[in-house]
Every structure is written in structure tokens, then in C-alpha cells.
């Protein structure tokens, strides 16, 4: 019974990552016209961010963070951090491909770079937290 429960708990730890991927997929399925309704508002609010879409950083920061949660924060090491970034970038690549089928959207290598930067920032934060926790 205990083995079953621990297996279920390990499986449930990945639910946030699955939900995060579903949200990214749903947002990527929106046409360019739908996105044009709120992106200019955000860029007007923060004019210094005119040249990129900060949502990519935030979404893939969250995705990598949920991958770390799935692995277990206490079990994170350099290899798992790297794996979380690679999984995030791989999902970002499939997301860019998915966008090629959405009206008024197109794949963009710069978006994939922003995805990777967001994921790497999350793993730096996790690694710093991990170092701090080990020192205590």
C-alpha cells in the first residue's frame, strides 16, 4: 500500500508541469489577432520591452520550475537542472512548430532563445536555493 501511495505521489508531482505545458499550448493556439489585443497594452505599459515578448521568459521559467518540482527540489543537481532546461527548450521547439499551423502566427528562433533563457533563469534560481538549503 505504501509503495502504491509513493508511486502516486511521484506521478502527481508532474501534474503542474503537464498543466503548464497545456497552458502554453492553449496560448500558442491563439491567432495573431487575438494576441494583438493585449500584447501592445503590455508593451505600452513597459516601453523598454518593445522588442520582445516577455511572456516567453515567464512561461518557460514556470515550465522549468515545474520540471524541478517534478524531479523533487531536494534531488536537483547539475544534471537534473540541465535536463529541466533541455526539456523546456525541446517543448519550446514543439511549440514553435505548433505555431506554424496557427493563423497569423509563425515559428521564431528568437522565441526559442527566450524560452531557453527563461528556463535557465529558473534553474539558476533553483540551484541557488539548493545551495542555500545545503549550507543550512
From TrEMBL:
InterPro entries: VanZ-like. The chain crosses the membrane at residues 55-73, 78-93, 113-131. It holds the Pfam family VanZ. Keywords: Membrane, Transmembrane, Transmembrane helix. Residues 15-129 form the VanZ-like domain. This is VanZ family protein.
Amino acid at each position: 500500500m505504501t509503495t502504491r501511495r509513493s508511486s502516486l505521489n511521484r506521478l502527481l508531482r508532474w501534474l503542474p508541469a503537464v498543466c503548464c505545458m497545456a497552458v502554453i499550448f492553449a496560448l500558442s493556439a491563439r491567432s495573431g489577432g487575438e494576441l494583438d489585443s493585449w500584447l501592445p497594452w503590455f508593451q505600452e505599459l513597459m516601453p523598454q520591452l518593445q522588442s520582445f515578448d516577455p511572456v516567453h521568459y515567464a512561461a518557460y521559467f514556470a515550465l522549468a520550475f515545474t520540471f524541478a518540482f517534478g524531479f523533487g527540489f531536494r534531488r536537483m543537481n547539475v544534471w537534473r537542472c540541465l535536463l529541466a532546461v533541455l526539456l523546456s527548450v525541446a517543448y519550446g521547439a514543439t511549440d514553435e512548430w505548433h505555431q506554424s499551423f496557427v493563423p497569423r502566427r509563425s515559428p521564431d528562433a528568437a522565441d526559442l532563445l527566450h524560452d531557453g533563457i527563461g528556463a535557465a533563469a529558473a534553474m539558476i534560481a533553483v540551484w541557488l536555493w539548493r545551495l542555500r538549503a545545503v549550507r543550512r
